[in-house]
């Protein structure tokens, strides 16, 4: 056992947090909806970055149209995933009590704002993809990594959203 784990067991605050139920309330057949809904926005964020790089490299306006759709998909599907995540954060005391939940929420909400700015830039002036859209796509990719790391920490280290039986 690591020294940190021994200290955690002696800490009454950590014990109180770990006593709270952190299983998902928004689920379909035991599968948390938030965990299921983040995959498409993540894929669209990285697709948009790739599309922007292809446009920069080729100059083909086809990639402008693809970037408009992929950035819109990232934003709107990210909003849906964020809504489900916010409901979980606010309704489940075991999720709300963890600092990592708030770090994940803040990084994810920042990501959604950047994705919205990226899509909005393309809607208002598609030729602003270079350099503004490309920079926003790069920032969105970095923020996706941050939000994903915090979300993974919640699942794998804290067991948030997992629905396991006592037998498991």
From TrEMBL:
InterPro entries: DUF2231_TM. Residues 30-161 form the DUF2231 domain. It holds the Pfam family DUF2231. The chain crosses the membrane at residues 38-57, 69-92, 99-117, 129-149. It comes from the Bacteria. Keywords: Membrane, Plasmid, Transmembrane, Transmembrane helix. This is DUF2231 domain-containing protein. It comes from Shinella sumterensis.
């Amino acid at each position: 056992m690591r020294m940190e784990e021994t200290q955690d067991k002696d800490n009454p605050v950590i014990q109180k947090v770990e006593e709270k139920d952190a299983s998902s309330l928004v689920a379909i057949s035991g599968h948390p909806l938030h965990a299921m809904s983040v995959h498409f926005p993540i894929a669209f964020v990285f697709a948009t970055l790739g599309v922007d790089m292809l446009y920069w490299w080729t100059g083909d306006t086809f990639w402008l149209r693809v970037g408009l759709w992929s950035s819109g998909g990232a934003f709107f599907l990210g909003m849906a995933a964020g809504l489900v995540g916010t409901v979980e954060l606010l309704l489940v005391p075991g999720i709300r009590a963890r600092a990592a939940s708030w770090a994940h929420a803040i990084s994810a909400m920042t990501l959604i704002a950047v994705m919205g700015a990226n899509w909005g830039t393309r809607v208002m002036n598609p030729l602003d993809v270079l350099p503004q859209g490309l920079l926003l796509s790069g920032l969105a990719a970095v923020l996706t990594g941050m939000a994903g790391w915090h979300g993974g920490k919640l699942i794998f280290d804290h067991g948030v959203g997992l629905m396991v039986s006592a037998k498991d």
